[in-house]
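Recall that a protein's primary structure is simply its ordered list of amino acids. Everything else, from secondary elements to tertiary packing, is in principle encoded there. The following example makes that idea concrete.
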Amino acid sequence: MAGVNTCIKYSMFFFNFLFWLCGSVILGISIWMRVSKDAKETIGVNIAEFYPAINLLLAVGSIIMVLGFLGCCGAIKESKCMLLLFFIGLLLILVLQITAGILGAVYSSQVASMIKDKYQDYVPLSGQPDKIRKEIEVMQQELKCCGLFDGYKDWKHPVPSSCDCKTDQSDPTLCVTIEVDKSVWSQSCVSALVDLLKANLVIIIGIAFGLAVIEIFGLAFSMTLYCQIKNK
């Protein structure tokens, strides 16, 4: 009978131990942020606003810990049951991950349309309440943009200082001169938001692809080890 490959066995144990350790850290930090009274003072923000994200981290940390535990114990104890559970759990995560990536790519254009529809009623900006104008100005400073759709023209007159563009930019197309000694950002904020969405989507897809490759190796290792134990 064929024996169990020691290299695969201990490689799987080591990587799943790191997997379990990462899950433990994520879970520990998220629990601390969720229940600790000192978390708000330490981080310096209102933690309650981030409860949905913290709850998601709790779920992710728990799943990673369970899978890491199954992978570790299944490898070191040569348990077919644990290895099979690890394989099924990791396969489900991979399927959900691929599905989420496809849906994200398909609906990204719809999200861009939603952004445009949301800000459509804000033009002209000069006629909006102070609260909305201040929010737009903050966005202009952060994204280095001016106006929502038609650049500085969305403001009518006067154009706020949050639109001011530094004339020493290496790319002169980033700025447009509208008056003597006054240059503003040429890109509109809705366009900047859509570009940011697309850039983040590319990063997320890249991370998901990298994780998928690791998960496929984990699936291959666990099934190989399972078959070797079965045939032992």
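The chain has two domains: 6-118+204-231, 123-190. Residues 189-231 form the longest helix (43 residues).
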